[in-house]
Amino acid sequence: MKVVAVPSIPSKIARALYSGADSVLNSLLDFRPELWGLPPFQDWVGKALPIEPWYLGGPVIKGFGRGSKVLGIPTANLPTAALGSQLSQHVCGIYLGWAGLSNRGVYKMVMSVGWNPFFDNAAKTVEPWLLHDFPDDFYGEELRLIVVGYIRPEANFSSLELLIERIHEDAEIAKAALDLLPFSSYQDDKFLTTPLAKQ
User: Fold this and answer.
1) In degrees to the nearest 10, what's the CA dihedral of 109, 115, 117, 119?
2) CB of 96 closer than 8 Å to CB of 111
3) What are phi and psi of 150, to 5 degrees?
4) Which helix H or strand E contains 105, and what residues bound it?
5) What are phi and psi for residue 127, nearest 5 degrees?
6) Is 172 a catalytic residue?
């Protein structure tokens, strides 16, 4: 028998409890049966797994300053304090979905949720990258997100170059997958463009 463990409360202290498992996953989203000689799941679409959509939004704030300066990837950070209950319900990883700015339009996006092991964040964060070239910043504007798919678990990298390379791979996966059903069906959701006060 092979054993795959999914700890209910992952922590460094609890790691020893799962040392007998053949593999330890953060979530069942990461279980790939074909790695264990079983038939693969048929629900992956364009290298992404459809999930029950989750909706979140808030004003765009200044983050760590590393997105554009260090990575060359401008992320639109949301205030995590107001999203605490939502974040606690979702596993760390890389997701895809749609982003709406009421005065600008709707865009494809790829997003990390977690502690970002490479930078060792002190708190769990949401860092969406809108896959569009904007001529200026939009701090303070209301950003609406519909997260519709899962790409991969959060991971650490041995170098900044490998991290950047993987982020761009995630972006290409998101761009392609969001043209496919069921992901594409959320592009016209009114949540993306309706100001919060009018809902």
Assistant:
1) 80
2) yes
3) -115, 135
4) strand 105-114
5) -130, 85
6) no
What pLDDT, on a 0 to 100 scale, did the predictor assign at position 138? Answer: 86
pLDDT at 146: 97
3-state helix, strand, coil in the chain (%, to 5): 30, 30, 45
pTM > 0.70: yes or no? yes
Q: Is the predicted pLDDT of residue 92 greater than 70, yes or no?
A: yes
- Could you read off the pLDDT of 58-83 as tens digits, one per residue? 899 876 555 555 677 888 888 877 67
Here the tokens at position 97 are: 């979905």
pLDDT, residue 66, reads 53
Instruction: Report the alpha-carbon distance of residue 199 to residue 178 in Å, rounded.
Output: 25
Q: What is the distance between the alpha carbons of residues 153 and 161, in angstroms, rounded to a whole number?
A: 19
114 SS3 class: strand
pLDDT tens, residue by residue, 100-118: 997 899 999 999 998 876 7
The number of angstroms, rounded, from the C-alpha of 134 to the middle of its chain's C-alpha atoms is 21
Per annotation, catalytic residue among 34, 52, 127, 142: 127
Report how far residue 28's alpha carbon sits from residue 5's, in angstroms, rounded to the nearest whole number: 9
Segment 151-176 shows an average pLDDT of: 94
Beta bridge partners of 147: 54, 97
Return the number of other C-beta atoms located less than 10 Å from residue 175's C-beta: 15
Alpha carbon distances (Å) from 110 to 35, 62, 130, 193: 26, 18, 7, 18
